[in-house]
Design a protein that fits this description.
The chain has helices spanning 10-19, 21-35, 64-68, 98-106, 108-120, 132-147, 169-172, 225-238, 249-262, 275-286, 291-296, 301-313, 316-342, 346-353, 357-382, 385-416, 422-425, 429-441, 447-456, 467-482, 488-510, 524-539, 546-552; strands at 44-52, 55-62, 77-79, 95-97, 124-130, 157-161, 180-185, 210-214, 219-222. The longest helix has 32 residues, at 385-416. The chain is α/β, with parallel strands linked by helices and 564 residues long.
């Protein structure tokens, strides 16, 4: 049962973060190394530190010039082939801040060697940096995540301090967001450096990861991108520009840690009827955003609240219920398949003819299943390439079973309605992608696998979900051969198609890749064979092929019972 959240956890999460030793170590090494730097042209240098045998910290140290004048090349974004692994179909290119990308690429050779070392090392890995160093640290973390084994128990965590935004929507839409924590002081204009001063103006920059906002009063964590952008814009506009003073994040965090340890429970009072709204409002006040400031900058907390609720409602329990519903519809299709076999037609032809009430009801089952799998495929497409491949692996077996069960019914409806050439004119994109992803990992069956298929073939689904589309096109080719008005060229083309179809079918049979249902008396395949056999006997009496010999000998009656 889903419930609306009663409280916002923004403050609790923030207090946990600031009281952990995680940031203490990172911050100490960050500024310890930074103090050792002398004034030289804007650059960033990575330093590796091992506080314990099972813990590694990589600090990206900006030179003093980079700290006071961050990203001197300006705030323009440029396409980045180096991060194409983040691309999706809907977001085919990823753009990165030019200066941050330039500095990252200047270190590429060194970082390639460092990546090789870190991917082999076990234990906790922290990547961190301040200001521009945080920008390069974020890019390196993405670079590292892409190359790491997805089964690795310890993945890198990136923690930045006062770091500017790095890129566009391509960075934002990734489950890798959970590996990034960005600390921002309400006195630091650098994180919002490239945002327009007015809320009426739009920006191509998008935040990714969790943001920990800090003030003298307290701290709060947020991961809502729209709210983060608004808060950064306000902070940047309120802090004077010019020579940027370095914010002492160490002092801020020490004060916050003491507050988090010694403070008592906060009382919400009765200012708001909804405690969830109260939690958000109070945490915004903690970082210096009272109701007056929210109104002044047109920050709509009600909309933010609605978005937070909708995100929270998508719980694991609802996902399990949805999956159970999908299993139920697949079970109903299995039942339908069995009933159709008893009618000696097979479920493809029963659905195509639509003679019984149950044939019509199947359309509803298909609709639920198709909606679910179209959404799953779309979600996989939205993910970065490498991450999407890992995501698909978890459910590809179920998706393949769905495709093999349901696509034949879509084919039946297509040809029942008078369609032709389903492969090019009717096939849904989600079927194409499910097949493509399956074939990327598929290998030719071994002898043992063929033997296993032979024993189980009576219960298997036809592997090629487009099999019945090829049958329908073969039927149309037979009709073309018998049509007196067909041109000689058209007839020859139709005959060539039938020869290729026969070779294709025999290959499927020899690999035990088709269900015995295709040989049921009333199936479309057997009807095609009757027409094809009649044409051969009348017009090509001397023609022979493996399929012709197999079918004329009625070997299909033993299909799946013994070796062919």
């Amino acid at each position: 049962m889903n419930q609306d959240p009663l409280f916002s956890s923004a403050g609790e999460l923030a207090n946990f973060v600031v009281t952990s030793n995680l940031i203490d170590y990172d911050l100490a090494k960050n500024f310890e190394f930074q103090r050792c730097q002398t004034a030289f042209p804007c650059s960033v240098q990575p330093m590796v530190y091992h506080p314990t045998p099972n813990r590694t910290i990589v600090v990206f140290i900006p030179s003093p010039d980079c700290t006071q004048y961050p990203l001197p090349e300006g705030g323009d974004l440029v396409p980045s082939p180096e991060f194409k692994f983040l691309c999706t179909k809907e977001c085919p290119s990823v753009s990165i801040n030019r200066a941050a990308l330039t500095l990252f690429l200047s270190l590429h050779d060194h970082l390639s060697g460092l990546k090789a070392q870190l991917t082999e090392r076990e234990g906790q890995l922290i990547i961190t940096g301040h200001s521009l160093g945080g920008s390069v640290a974020s890019l390196f973390t993405l670079y590292l995540l892409d190359s790491m084994d997805k089964k690795r128990k310890c993945r890198p965590i990136c923690i930045t301090f006062g770091s500017p935004l790095k890129g566009n929507f391509g960075l934002q839409h990734s489950q890798w967001n959970s590996f990034f924590l960005h600390l921002v002081s309400n006195k630091d204009p650098v994180p919002g450096l490239f945002l327009p001063s007015s809320h009426s103006q739009t920006t191509v920059y998008k935040p990714f990861g969790t943001y920990l906002f800090c003030s003298e009063l307290g701290c709060a964590c947020f991961d809502n991108p729209d709210l983060i952008l608004k808060l950064l814009t306000v902070i940047s506009s309120e802090v004077a520009g010019g020579l940027l003073q370095v914010v002492d994040y160490g002092e801020i965090l020490r004060n916050l840690k003491n507050k988090a340890i010694w403070k008592g429970p906060q009382l919400a009072g009765e200012r708001f009827a909804d405690p969830f709204s109260t939690g958000i409002i109070m945490k915004l006040e903690t970082i210096g955003f009272d109701q007056t400031k929210l109104l002044q900058h047109n920050i709509d907390i009600r909309r933010m609240e609605a978005e937070a609720r909708s995100l929270t409602k998508k719980t694991k329990a609802s996902d399990i219920k949805e999956l159970n519903d999908i299993k139920k519809y697949m079970a109903l299709l299995e039942w339908y398949k069995k009933k159709s076999k008893d009618a000696k037609k097979g479920y493809y032809d029963c659905f195509k003819s639509g003679e019984f009430r149950r044939d019509i009801a199947v359309g509803e089952f298909m609709g639920h299943l198709t909606t679910y799998w179209e959404d799953m495929v779309a979600e996989a497409q939205w993910k970065p390439q490498t991450e999407g491949a890992s995501f698909r692996t978890g459910w590809l077996f179920s998706g393949t079973t769905y495709r093999r069960m349901v696509e034949p019914l879509d084919i039946a409806a297509f040809y029942r309605d008078g369609g032709t050439d389903y492969i090019n004119n009717g096939r849904s994109q989600h079927y194409k992608l499910l097949q493509q992803w399956y074939e990327e990992d598929a290998k030719p069956p071994s002898r043992d696998q063929l033997d296993s298929r032979k024993e189980k073939v009576s219960a298997l689904l036809t592997e090629d979900s487009c099999f019945w589309a090829y049958v329908e096109e073969a039927i149309l080719s037979c009709e073309s051969l018998k049509n007196a008005n067909s041109s000689p060229e058209h007839r020859e083309s139709s005959w060539d198609n039938l020869v290729m179809f026969g070779e294709y079918v025999m290959e499927q049979i020899e690999n035990y890749a088709v269900s015995p249902e295709i040989f049921l008396e009333e199936s479309s395949f057997m009807k095609w064979w009757g027409e094809y056999e009649d044409y051969i006997d009348t017009n090509r009496n001397f023609y022979s092929s493996r399929l012709v010999n197999f079918t004329k000998r009625r070997s299909y009656k033993q299909y799946g019972r013994r070796a062919i």
